[in-house]
Amino acid sequence: MTKVFFTSDHHFGHRAIIDYESRPFADTEQMNESMIAGWNEAVGQEDRVFHLGDFSFLDKEETSRILSRLNGYKTLILGNHDRGRSRSWWLDAGFQEVSENGIIYKEFFLITHEPLYMNRHMPYVNVHGHIHGQKYAGNNHFNVCVEHWNYKPVSFEALMDILASSQETDKNDHNPLSSES
């Protein structure tokens, strides 16, 4: 059965991100290899992965080598660090699909690189990257940056379980009967 995964902000080949985000790697080679291994542990060949931007700081040849080693059908939503390269550059490098804008997934999830403003009355969940180790509070945002997920893609099933659990907690917190015995 095909599974769907979300991830973002790998920054393959970006030395400075190790320091900026206190990543637990000695150098970019260790970081790249660890993230490739983590991706392939989680994602099967037939699975689909939405990468929500800032994939690689490497040239096309090196980026292509990494993409060829990663399992799954890969869709890239361009991040701020990806936009210096054309959509065709990313397709040539090995992504099967590339979107310059966000995507609406299953009519409920807004999948973007940067988090969007979502007030509590909006009926959507924004699945995003960009903010690395930071986290937005509330049920309307879901940060899939690698720093939150042990440098692996997170499955749609796991995302749904977490959202269901947080909505149940939120419902109980606002239910005046939930504190009665």
Structure characterization notes:
With 181 residues, the chain is an alpha/beta fold. It contains 5 helices and 9 strands. The protein has one domain (4-173): Purple Acid Phosphatase, chain A, domain 2. It is 31% helix and 17% strand. Strands 4-3-2-1-9 form a 5-stranded mixed β-sheet. A 4-stranded mixed β-sheet has the order 5-6-7-8, with no helix packed on it. A hairpin with a 3-residue loop joins strand 5 and strand 6 (109-111). Helix 3 (60-69) packs across helix 4 (87-93).
Which keywords apply here?
alpha/beta, 31% helix, globular, 5 helices, single chain, 181 residues, disordered C terminus
Summarize the structure in short.
Helix content is 31%, strand content 17%. Helix 3 (60-69) crosses helix 4.
Number of strands: 9
Number of helices: 5
Mean pLDDT across all amino acids:
90
| Coarse structural class | alpha/beta
Proportion in helices: 25-40%
Assembly state of the chains shown = single chain
Order of strands in the sheet with the most strands? 4-3-2-1-9
CATH class: Alpha Beta
Provide the domain count: 1
Task: Kindly estimate the percentage of residues that lie in beta strands according to DSSP.
Answer: 15-25%
What name does the CATH topology carry? Answer: Purple Acid Phosphatase, chain A, domain 2
CATH homologous superfamily caption: Metallo-dependent phosphatases
Secondary structure layout plus pairing:
Elements: E1 4-7, H1 15-20, H2 28-42, E2 48-51, H3 60-69, E3 73-77, H4 87-93, E4 97-99, E5 103-105, E6 109-111, E7 125-128, E8 141-143, E9 154-155, H5 156-173
Parallel strand pairs: 1-2, 2-3, 3-4, 6-7, 7-8
Antiparallel strand pairs: 1-9, 5-6
Helix pairs in contact: 3-4
